[in-house]
Every structure is written in C-alpha cells, then in structure tokens.
Specification:
mainly alpha; about 0% strand; transmembrane helix
Length: about 100
C-alpha cells in the first residue's frame, strides 16, 4: 500500500471521528474509539468504492494524486454525513430489551 492509498482510506474517517468527538463532548475509552473509527472507515470506504465502481466500471483503481484528492474529498463529505446521521440516531433511537428466564 502506498501513502496515497493509506491517506485516502484512513484520513477522512479520522476527521469524521474527531468531528464526532466534538459533537458528543464525551470521553470515550480506547475500545469505543476503535469501534466507532472502524464503523466510520467501513461505511465510508464501502460507499466511496461503490460510487467509484459505479461511475468508472472498473474493478481496480490506480491511486494517482488527482484520483486520491477526488476520492478523499468524496470520502470526507460522506463521512461527515455519516457522523451527523449516526449522532442523530444515537440521540433519538432508544432500544429496550427484556430478558425472560424460563426457569421461573
């Protein structure tokens, strides 16, 4: 993997994580940070690769400097949208679970 690939695939998700931390203003432990970062990286790169594959109709991409900039900007916009939607869902969706014991 070249520097261009690493930068384009990871950096937008890190920026999204920093934006998420700014929105929540909470202290998270390392496992929560890693989980949220992994979620953002997966969703961002999945959506970006789907968009690029749909428009270019190629299975392999060459990370030239111009392609890296376009991919990074697209990924940055997508991850910011993902962060806003994730935070909206986090604030407005509540799940209640009830566990029933069969032994009673």
């Amino acid at each position: 993997m070249t520097f261009n690939e690493v930068m384009a695939l990871i950096l937008p998700s890190l920026i999204g994580l920093l934006f998420y931390l700014k929105l929540t203003e909470e202290k998270l432990n390392i496992m929560e940070l890693f989980g949220i970062l992994s979620l953002f990286m997966f969703l961002t790169n999945f959506i970006c690769y789907t968009i690029v594959y749909y428009f270019r109709e190629k299975q392999q991409f060459l990370f030239t400097p111009s392609f890296t900039i376009k991919y990074s900007m697209t990924a940055l916009v997508i991850v910011l949208i993902i962060v806003i939607v994730y935070r909206f869902l986090e604030l407005n969706v509540k799940v209640k679970l009830k566990v029933e014991n069969k032994k009673k």
